[in-house]
Amino acid sequence: MKNFLDKNNNNINDNYDMQTLINIVWQGAATTNQVSQQLGLVVNSVNVLQSDMRGIKDDINQLKLNEEVTTTQQENIIETARRRVCEILDFDNDEIHKYMKTFISRLYTNARTYTGLGSKISRTKKGDYQRVIDFIEAWEPKEGCGGLKNIADERAESRRRAKEQEYDC
Fold it and tell me: Which of these, 68, 109, 102, lies nearest to 88 by C-alpha position?
């Protein structure tokens, strides 16, 4: 009889141990599921933060590009324009003295029209700076060098005649 009871008790203990094990596994699975859900929420939050940071970084970069050029960049634009006009006029001092103002004026007008040069050089946006420099370095007068010289000569002649007739110019 004792063997029978021991056997039955062992079966009961075995069942109890099996039930405990199932409960523990179920609780572990439930805990793992909760942790997994919480990790999913954390991952979603991190992704939202990363997306927000990318947006902020893009906004800051856009603001930097919309800033006006620095004094150094402004001086580079002026120097590049002067150098380009001197190249076009073959570094002839007489012609540079005579035509510089007209050529520079036309160059800046074209650069404002086609590349985003500001109403004043200092108002040029940093985002347009390199495009302006590239344009100036490649600029050729639309009328050609001789055509622009003729325009300048005609203006000078009309100013001279106006002064002779005592008009205020």
Answer: 102
Left (φ > 0), alpha (ψ -120 to 50) or beta: where does 86 sit? alpha
Sign of the CA dihedral running 81, 84, 89, 92: positive
**Residue 120 near residue 73, CB atoms below 8 Å:** no
Whether the model clears a pTM of 0.70, i.e. scores above it, the answer is: no
Q: How many CA atoms lie within 13 A of 91 on its CB side?
A: 1
Structural contact between residues 68 and 118, judged by C-beta atoms closer than 8 angstroms: yes
> Would you say residue 8 has pLDDT above 60?
no
> What SS3 class is residue 140?
coil
pLDDT higher than threshold 70 for residue 136:
yes
